[in-house]
Structure formats: C-alpha cells, structure tokens
Design a protein that fits this description.
- With 188 residues, the chain is mostly helical.
- It folds into two domains: 82 residues; 76 residues, Winged helix-like DNA-binding domain superfamily/Winged helix DNA-binding domain (Arc Repressor Mutant, subunit A), CATH 1.10.10.10.
- 70% of the residues lie in helices and 0% in strands.
- Helix 1 packs antiparallel against helix 5, helix 3 runs parallel beside helix 6 and helix 6 crosses helix 7.
Amino acid sequence: MASREELSSFLAAVERRAFKQAVFALRNDESALDAVQDAMLKLAEKYSDRPAGEFPMLFQRILQNVIRDAFRRRKVRSTWTTLLSAFSGTDDDDDYDLLDTMVVDDPSSLGRSPEQNVGQAEVMALIEREISRLPGRQREAFLMRYWEEMDISETAAVMGCSEGSVKTHCSRATHSLAAALKLRGVKL
C-alpha cells in the first residue's frame, strides 16, 4: 500500500511527461491539462491503496482511457456543432506552450553555453513536432516505451494489444522519426 507521499511524489514526477503525451494526442493544451488532471484524480481516488510500483502502469492506462474519452466527446460535440452551427472560431495560439511558463530547475543545462541551450531547445521542438505527426498508435507506443520507460509487456497491457504490435509500432515510429529528423539536418 502506497503512502500519500509516494502518491504525491509519483504525480509530481509524471505530470510534465503526461501533459506532453496528452498534448501530442489531443493537440490542444486545455484539453491536455483536463485529461492529465482527470487521470491524476482517478488514480488518487480509486487506486491510492495500491502499491507504488503499480502507479506507472495504472496511470498510463487511466490517461489513455481519458484521452480516448476526450476524442469521443470531441467527435460528438463536433457532429452537433457542425449540424447546428455555422460558427467555427479558433482562438488557439499554436506558439504558446504552457510548459514554457513553468519554473523548473533543469540541471541538464548547467555547463552549456547559451548557443548550445538554444540549439538543444530547437532540436527538442523539432522532435516534439515530429512526434505529434506520428499516427496515434505509433505515438502512443513510442511515448510509453521511450519517454515513460515502460517495458514491452506493460505497454502492451496499457494499449490493449500484443507485444508484437508494440514492437511494430515502436519500430515504425523510430524509423519515421529518424527519417524526418535526417531530412531536417539533425544528426543522430
């Protein structure tokens, strides 16, 4: 059984990665924040009595279900909005990244020049853009395996597919990312 401190530590450690994962899937910062918040609340409400070692897999499963629910709601809303309204306003500011406003100590930037920091930020932005262009299942498998560091069996369980499918999705995602980055001059 996990303590409150273990649950809090887990949620604090996973929030940024979960937000990025939700943004990649939902392509909207507000929806992503809602999804992450819902997933965190569900984990705390329903699974806080579980051992802390189960939190990563449970949280990923909850987050993926919340994201799927958001897609379903968006589809229903879109259908009714299209049928009942001719208005389509978009106030999305694509250049705004909520994570840029968060103050976080980043020890990885110590000892580097400003040019190196800018270069790394540009490469990371490029990688994030390319990840967002991956097909949904490839992106989901890639993020769980390489960003969340889940093993193949955990990823397969969360995604509801076979381990072979996870391997295929990850392989295709890494090949697509490598080819896209190579086209843009990023040396791997």
